[in-house]
Design goal:
28% of the residues lie in helices and 28% in strands. The chain is α+β, with helices and mostly antiparallel strands. Strands 3-2-1-4-5-6 form a six-stranded mixed beta sheet. It is globular.
Length: 153
């Protein structure tokens, strides 16, 4: 079963941008990919979230697309066409999310809040809310999950 999540970025002016990730939405996967991407990307996610998220999706899908073109996976399946989506304003991005990630600015720092869905309470429960660097220390794996570091450098 897929571990679905949404990733929301609030910009410096309070506007929110959201994407949906169909699988590997657990903190070790998402936080690893965020760390890899942020280390290679020249802009803060809260300065230009629309570009940040668009490029994040591109680099997350790129390894599968390359494997398809190299014949490592069946090119007819086109797995790279799935897995991520853009959410319209006020969208819940599916009623079956396991995690929600919120990236936002606070006092000149980039913050990350992570919420996990509880089947006991049928609500989301906050499991982390601190500087994104602290999330990297706790969950990030340098090998990434969907993003491959070698494709960004």
């Amino acid at each position: 079963m897929a571990t679905r999540c949404s990733i929301t970025i609030r910009d410096e002016y309070g506007k929110e941008y959201r994407i949906y990730r169909h699988c590997d939405g657990y903190p070790e996967g998402v936080v690893s990919d965020l760390q890899i991407f942020m280390s290679a990307y020249d802009r803060s996610p809260v300065e230009s979230p629309e570009y940040f998220l668009a490029n994040f999706i591109f680099y997350a899908k790129l390894p599968m697309w390359l494997e398809s073109k190299e014949g490592k996976i069946d090119p007819m399946l086109k797995w790279w066409e799935f897995g991520y989506g853009i959410c319209p304003e006020n969208c819940k991005c599916g009623s079956d999310l396991d995690y929600r990630y919120f990236i936002y600015p606070k006092d000149g720092k980039i913050m990350l809040k992570i919420e996990r869905f509880s089947y006991e309470t049928m609500n989301f429960k906050e499991i982390f809310n601190d500087e994104i660097e602290k999330a990297f220390e706790r969950w990030a794996d340098s090998g990434g999950c969907h993003l491959e570091p070698k494709l960004l450098y």
